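Let us practice reading a record.
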Amino acid sequence: MEQAKKTANTNSPSWIEIVSRYNFSDPVRSWWQIINSVVPYLLLWAAMIWSLKVSYFLTLFLSVFAAGFLVRIFIIFHDCGHGSFFRSKLLSRIVGIITGIMTFTPYHKWTHEHKEHHATVGNLDKRGVGDVKTLTIEEFLKLSPWKRFVYRFYRHPLFLFGLAPFLVFVFVNRLPKKFTSSKEHIYLHLTNLALVVTIILMMWLIGWKAYLLIQLPVLYIASVHGVWLFYVQHQYENVVWARADEWNYKDIALEGSSYFKLPKVLQWFTGNIGFHHIHHLSPKIPNYKLPECYNENIVFQEVKPVTFFSSLRSLKLRLWDEERKKLVGFKALRYYSR
């Protein structure tokens, strides 16, 4: 955590003073973001329904843009879960539930797991909730040959980004976890019911084939990009993780969460979530204020950005090397087998 110690004392009151300037929503900007995200998405859906009569290639072309807006809608859903999008808890919950149905994500279940993620990110002793499963080298070496194969399969890019995202949003999000409370259990099934009713209604309006030809590619493209964003936020070269006795929330926010620097158009579609180091420092900052917070405070700019091309190198990272305190690929196992 040397970098954070060099850039600033994250325990000093100045940190609270900095983020407090951005820790509140602007109703006009929040509603405008809903309008410029949801309305284009619905219009694209209408255009895709029409395009089915022309060419399915046109439908697929439009689905790429629809997926981009769906990712942006997910960021609204995400902010509602943090209570950063609206000051009203009730309004946040209502908008969160609606956008959750649109993104195939149960609001209460996901919000609970995501808060756990924020409280434990980078903590090697508290992995397992809202994380991409990552083993240490020592843990991997203790596995049976079959479990090693399963882990290698799970961490392979073709599964992790090709199949898993779709499975998560379509199937896994429908199921409760062991720690799901009775109340969250009920909300989960109500969300599932609402989603089923919505799907049946859409199939009744436009036909089951038309619905699937549109919804499946949109959801697939959006889910793959969403999982990739989440992966790069905490799985990248030089990321810092620590055991519980060394773990510090504010230091890990800066060094255990990336600044994923994207082209402006992709930054817009991803709701500025690339400023993830700031988001983890203060999840109460609404997404549309993250660029301001970054541009107006030099300390955030000192965090080395992860670019699109440098992020590709994270595809080879599979295990945490506690000896060298870094993420490594499976090739590093050769060093331990000597």
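A brief commentary: The CA atoms of residues 13 and 19 lie 10 Å apart.
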